[in-house]
Specification:
The complex is a heterodimer of chains A (207) and B (133).
Chain A: E1 28-36, H1 42-47, E2 55-60, E3 82-92, E4 96-102, H2 110-117, E5 122-127, H3 136-144, E6 149-154, H4 164-171, E7 179-182, H5 187-206
Parallel strand pairs in A: 1-4, 1-5, 5-6, 6-7
Antiparallel strand pairs in A: 2-3, 3-4
Chain B: H1 2-9, H2 17-32, E1 49-52, H3 63-74, E2 77-78, H4 79-86, H5 90-102, E3 106-109, H6 116-131
Antiparallel strand pairs in B: 1-2, 1-3
Helix pairs in contact in B: 4-5
Chain lengths: 207, 133
């Protein structure tokens, strides 16, 4: 692709799968949110299945600084704080584009989460058993809003350190919430996690 | 960073090279939108797809508007992708895309007006699609 007047690199599909739809009809877009604590493997999870290298976008706190900025009370001071969010895209048959959006990690960025989950199929919450508490806020968030979510226990180095039911008990999530081991680096494991989530979302919709 | 910005608005005379980088990344984008942080009359989810209608207007557009038009001419682009490729905050891209849409220079595709039945069909397709990967 040539961009004679721009120094912006053309977005490239890694395997060429994501092409413009014929006849000027845009693909149908759907999205899944990938949540969990800092450094739990969200971007790795997204990258394991995305057609494109995960991209990063940011929102500036400036847009929401009043009442959100914890620098001290209500203030009209503009701050330059930004929050980054990684995402990927998968082209599926039937002219569907599935976007995977990783959540920013801190709860003061919940204004971004609201934006992210609007219209989403649901969420995959990645769990690090060494830092269980880091996924509490994600679990609380999706439970409170009745957004379909699954808990994917990321096994670093392929080692499951804790039994699934022990993790479930520690997180105090209902038995209906699907919970399973995953490996964020594995395309197959990521695929299975997404299938579990979509199946859950469909059963909720049919209920 | 916050302090730097505050001082600059207070009229600190000289900007260092570091400040200029910060300026290009964080302050200038809001100048670009003339201070607006929300698009005018259009709902722009992150995954909304943007396609340029015509590149005739590219020549007269500002550089950021031109980049949006160029990128979305080559292939349809989501708001999130435009933000990533242009290295501009989402809020800024939303305002710029909102303007371009109101001027008829781009078309925005969103999944509005979905019925529960059509949503379920879409989910079925997503499930089959992922399974076939």
């Amino acid at each position: 692709m040539a961009f004679p007047h721009s120094d912006v690199a053309a977005p490239e599909a890694r395997d060429g799968a994501a092409q413009e739809a014929p006849g000027g009809v845009a693909p149908i877009t759907v999205k899944i949110v990938v949540a969990g604590g800092f450094a739990v493997g969200k971007t790795t999870f997204i990258g394991s299945i995305s057609d494109i290298e995960p991209l990063s976008t940011e929102a500036a706190m400036t847009e929401h600084s009043v009442g959100v900025d914890d620098a001290g009370g209500v203030s009209d001071r503009k701050t330059n704080t930004t929050v980054a969010m990684d995402f990927g895209r998968i082209a599926l048959p039937g002219d569907l584009w599935l976007y995977l959006f990783g959540t920013p990690g801190q709860d003061r960025f919940h204004f971004m989460w609201d934006d992210l989950v609007k219209g989403a199929i649901g969420a995959v919450v990645l769990v690090d058993t060494d830092r269980l508490e880091s996924c509490f806020e994600a679990v609380d968030y999706f439970e409170a809003r009745q957004i379909p979510f699954v808990l994917a226990v990321n096994c670093f180095d392929g080692v499951a350190k804790h039994g699934i039911e022990d993790v479930r008990e520690a997180l105090a999530v209902r038995a209906e919430v699907p919970m399973f081991y995953t490996d964020a680096r594995s395309r197959q494991a990521t695929k299975q996690a997404l299938i579990t989530l979509v199946t859950l979302a469909m059963s909720r919709m049919q209920a | 960073m916050a302090d730097d910005a505050a001082e600059r608005r207070d009229g600190r005379p000289e900007a260092t090279a570091y400040d200029e980088i910060e300026e290009s990344r964080a302050v200038r984008p809001y100048t670009m939108t003339r201070g607006r942080t929300r698009p005018g009359h259009i709902d722009l989810p992150l995954e909304a797809l943007v396609r340029a209608v015509s590149t005739d207007a590219v020549g007269s557009a500002t550089s950021e508007r031109r980049r949006i038009l160029e990128l979305s001419t080559a292939t349809v682009q989501s708001v999130a992708e435009l933000s990533a490729h242009l290295r501009l905050p989402l809020g800024v891209v939303r305002v710029l895309v909102g303007d371009l849409a109101e001027e008829g220079l781009v078309v925005v595709h969103t999944q509005k007006d979905q019925t529960p039945q059509s949503n379920l069909k879409v989910l079925e397709s997503v499930l089959n699609g992922i399974s076939s990967l």
